[in-house]
């Protein structure tokens, strides 16, 4: 199954400061900004576009339970995950299973933009947090 880079997620401590850098220095355009209090997300999120490439800035909203807060405590701020768009998320998960790559079922969700997503187990990806995602509602409209 074909995959293409969808976005890069970056863990930040201060969303306003980080947005200013991306907008003023890298000429990014703010696409959306929202807060997700969903279990396992608990972050302020800014979606930015730079020359047709997407970046998600992720700032924890709960320093106790947010996975972004845990990530920053363990590894510091910086690249959190790399997301790849697949044609069909369910089929991609089956292909991963055949190859012995596990997914983290507790990360499966649909975000506010209709993106279905799941994270692969970093133990199977050389430690890199990888997201697989698809956009079934957008695909239906095409």
UniProtKB/TrEMBL annotation:
Keywords: Metal-binding
A Pfam family it matches: Glyoxalase_4
Keyword Nucleotide-binding: no
GO molecular function: metal ion binding; methylmalonyl-CoA epimerase activity
InterPro entries given in the database record: Glyas_Bleomycin-R_OHBP_Dase (IPR029068), MeMalonyl-CoA_epimerase (IPR017515), MMCE/EMCE_epimerase (IPR051785), VOC_core (IPR037523)
Similarity comment text for this entry: Belongs to the methylmalonyl-CoA epimerase family.
Domain VOC: residue ranges: 4-135
CDD domains to which the protein is assigned, alphabetical: MMCE
Top-level taxon of the source organism: Bacteria
Annotated GO biological process: L-methylmalonyl-CoA metabolic process
PANTHER family linked to this entry: METHYLMALONYL-COA EPIMERASE (PTHR43048), METHYLMALONYL-COA EPIMERASE, MITOCHONDRIAL (PTHR43048:SF3)
Organism in which the protein naturally occurs: Salipaludibacillus neizhouensis
Name of the protein in question: Glyoxalase
């Amino acid at each position: 199954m074909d995959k293409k880079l969808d976005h890069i997620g970056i863990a930040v401590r201060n969303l306003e400061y980080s947005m200013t850098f991306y907008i003023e220095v890298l000429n990014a355009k703010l696409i959306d900004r929202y807060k997700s209090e969903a279990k396992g997300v608990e972050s302020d999120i800014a979606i930015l576009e730079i020359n047709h490439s997407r970046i998600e800035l992720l700032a924890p909203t709960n320093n106790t339970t947010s996975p972004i807060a845990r990530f920053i405590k363990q590894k510091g701020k910086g690249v959190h995950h790399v997301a790849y768009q697949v044609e069909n998320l369910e089929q991609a998960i089956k292909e991963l299973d055949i190859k012995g790559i596990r997914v983290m079922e507790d990360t499966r969700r649909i975000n506010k933009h209709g993106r279905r997503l799941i994270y692969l187990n970093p133990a199977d990806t050389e430690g890199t947090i990888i997201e697989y995602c698809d956009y079934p509602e957008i695909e239906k409209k095409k």
